[in-house]
Amino acid sequence: MITVTACPAGYAVAQLLGSITLRQITSAESFTLSSKSTMAEVLAIIGLVSNILSFIDFGIKFASGTRNVRDSAHGTTTEVRELELIVEDV
């Protein structure tokens, strides 16, 4: 849903999915939002949210991995320790 509100002093505020855009307009200019620009803005917001979630997911996995290495007795992950034991047996 798009809400366009005219403000005093020649400004218009467009609110789209929680983000607010403030743009100065003149009296001769009409302030309209085309469906193409709106769709592009929605896709940009979805892409930004997706990238933020991916970054958070990576950070959580990285922190978990470093915690596992820190807490281990041998200074490596369990998978690496198992591989070391297999190599020693061979």
**SSE order in H/E notation?**
EEEHH
Question: What general form does the structure show?
Answer: elongated
User: Which strand order spans the largest sheet, edge to edge or round the barrel?
Assistant: 1-2-3
Strand content: 15-25%
The computed structural class is: alpha+beta
Number of strands: 3
Q: How would you describe this structure to a colleague?
A:
The structure is a single chain. The chain has a three-stranded antiparallel sheet, covered by helices on one side. By secondary structure, the chain is of the alpha+beta class. It contains two helices and three strands; from the N terminus they run βββαα. The model has no long low-confidence stretch (mean pLDDT 74). It has two domains: 28 residues; 57 residues. The protein is elongated.
